[in-house]
Specification:
The chain is an alpha+beta fold. It is built from three helices and eleven strands, in the order H-E-E-H-E-E-E-E-E-E-E-E-H-E. Strands 1-2-10-7-8-4-3-11 form an eight-stranded antiparallel β-barrel. A two-stranded antiparallel ribbon has the order 6-9. Strand 7 and strand 8 form a beta hairpin.
């Protein structure tokens, strides 16, 4: 009976995580986090410990206009290339921040499965309200290092 309870508890926790979109971090992270300002809302971006995230960090502060694609992501093409370590990620979670190719920043506001390859840069810590903040169409986002 205890075994069944633990299994039920596990699936309940996983379901809540899926519904609320919390990003559980499973990769090593940098000690530096980045603030994203979208309209009047602020979000914390946790950066993964890889060269791509370090390259991105060197661009701070950065204000860009990200365009909408497929009603699930915002993207921006940088004028310079970043280091890539792309792999097939399998699934995208709301709040994932990745690099497509060598210069296309992508911020996802929907969760879904994918066969595309990306380089992981980081993830938004608390995605509550992210989709509404990003809105439809293009949006200006300011990235800055948290002190």
């Amino acid at each position: 009976m205890k075994k069944y309870f633990l299994i039920l508890l596990f699936f309940t926790i996983m379901a809540c995580n899926s519904v609320y979109g919390d990003n559980t971090i499973t990769m090593n992270t940098l000690n530096t986090s980045v603030s994203l300002k979208i309209n009047n809302e602020e979000y914390k971006l946790i950066l993964y410990d890889n060269q791509t995230a370090k390259d991105f960090l060197s661009l701070m502060p950065l204000t860009i206009t990200m365009n909408d694609l497929n009603a699930n992501e915002k993207y921006y093409n940088l004028s310079k290339n970043l280091t890539t370590q792309s792999s097939r990620v399998g699934s995208i979670k709301t709040g994932d921040f990745m690099l497509y190719g060598s210069n296309c920043l992508v911020l996802f506001y929907e969760s879904f499965s994918t066969s595309y390859s990306y380089t992981k840069i980081g993830c938004i810590e608390n995605v509550s309200g992210l989709k509404d903040s990003l809105g439809r169409g293009s949006v200006q986002i300011t990235f800055s290092v948290n002190n």
